[in-house]
Write a structure and sequence with these properties.
4-stranded mixed β-sheet; alpha+beta; single chain
């Protein structure tokens, strides 16, 4: 606790006791870079959350990055087939960004404004008067962790609605805005009961990746092809991403977290199973070198997308909602929006714009028809039809 008080004193240039009437003795959240304490503002009695960087993390981070780079270079010389420089490069690029809490505050405000149309999303307000490079003071937000099934049950929160809203948020981040929160682990995603379903609370905005427009559109095309089981387009996009030959199949398995059999038949048509998950893990162990080479080849922004996808899939798996048809519909709509908006921008005639809008409407209509079919198949309507069918 003495280190926490010292950082507060050094960065805020005042004794913490002059600002805060209480500071929780134990952190309400802790990680390798910082810890979060609940505090009470002396002047107003307002409850706030203060994120304080570990005092020695900055100098230690320089040593850690140098050590990692040295080890990766040694491994590369001994085992040339293991191409792990991408790991060292990403760490060197991202760690200094994560250690700057002023940058995190700006990220917080940007995403709060970007998704203000989602009334069910809560992003905490930043207190700039109590924020520095090592101290970030925010509005205190409570809730249960997004993967806590017992908490959801006790508070009558639908796991399916949580997954649906999480899917909407991240689909817009990736495919529409190209601005992606890259650390959606359960500690950074809280949920609480709201007036119109669950409210999601998004925390820890230190690490975002900003996708180039070209990559965002290419990634949208990739996912549309995955959802349509369009193997031909998958191969073309894989080639555009620098992954040639049949290696594109492994890339698509990495992106989707599914086996090639599921990808080629349609990931929305084959439910993910425990057996398939084990097969994927076994394959990854056997082909580690090839996977490492692919990761070293693809655009850098894709690496953080992989991490984000894995964390989101982990949450869905724990909630038992992975592979729900509604999540595929949400993703498809965002991909369609991204692809057709780009086509509209390239149009230079009224006929071209009309044609693109018609194609967009037809695609959305076919998606809505499929969504209606999925709903009818999985609700009381299907039971009713079955009852009529078997009735004498």
């Amino acid at each position: 606790m003495s280190d926490v008080l010292r950082v507060l004193r050094e960065d805020l240039h005042v004794e913490p006791s002059e600002i805060f009437s209480t500071i929780s003795e134990h952190p309400i959240g802790a990680a390798s870079l910082a810890q979060v304490h609940e505090v009470t503002l002396k002047e107003t009695g307002e409850k706030l959350a203060v994120k304080v960087q570990h005092r020695k993390v900055q100098p230690h981070s320089l040593v850690d990055m140098a050590t990692m780079e040295l080890l990766v270079n040694i491994v590369a010389k001994i085992f040339p087939e293991f191409t792990l420089m991408w790991l060292a490069d990403e760490t060197k690029r991202n760690l200094p960004v994560e250690l700057d809490f002023i940058n995190e505050g700006h990220n917080t405000e940007r995403v709060k404004n970007m998704f203000k149309h989602f009334k069910w999303l809560k992003v905490p307000e930043v207190r700039w008067d109590l924020t520095s490079k090592r101290v970030l003071t925010m509005e205190f937000c409570d809730g249960g962790q997004v993967n806590d099934k017992d908490y959801l049950k006790r508070n009558n929160i639908s796991a399916e609605q949580v997954t649906d809203r999480l899917g909407k948020l991240y689909s817009e981040m990736i495919f529409v805005h190209g601005y992606v929160h890259c650390d959606p682990h359960p500690g950074n995603l809280l949920v609480r009961a709201g007036p119109d379903g669950p409210t999601l609370v998004l925390l820890d905005h230190g690490l975002y990746t900003e996708l180039t427009n070209a990559f965002r559109l290419r990634y949208s095309r990739l996912w549309l092809a995955l959802l349509r089981a369009d193997v031909k387009t998958l191969k073309v996009v894989g080639n555009e991403l620098g992954v040639h030959g049949d290696l594109y199949k492994i890339l698509m398995c990495i992106v989707s977290g599914r086996s090639w059999t599921a990808v080629s038949e349609g990931i929305d048509k084959r439910k993910a199973t425990v057996k398939e998950g084990q097969e994927i893990r076994d394959f990854a162990s056997e082909h580690f070198t090839t996977i490492s080479q692919i990761l070293n080849t693809v655009p850098r922004e894709m690496l953080l997308i992989f991490k984000t996808n894995d964390l989101l899939r982990g949450i869905e798996t724990m909630l038992g909602t992975r592979g729900a048809s509604k999540s595929f519909m949400t993703m498809s709509r965002c991909c369609i929006r991204a692809v057709y908006e780009e086509q509209l921008e390239l149009c230079n005639s009224m006929w071209c714009r009309f044609s693109v809008r018609v194609r967009s409407l037809l695609t959305s209509w076919s998606l809505s028809t499929y969504e209606l079919y999925c709903w009818m198949r999985s609700t009381w309507f299907a039971t009713l039809l079955l009852g009529l069918h078997v009735a004498p």
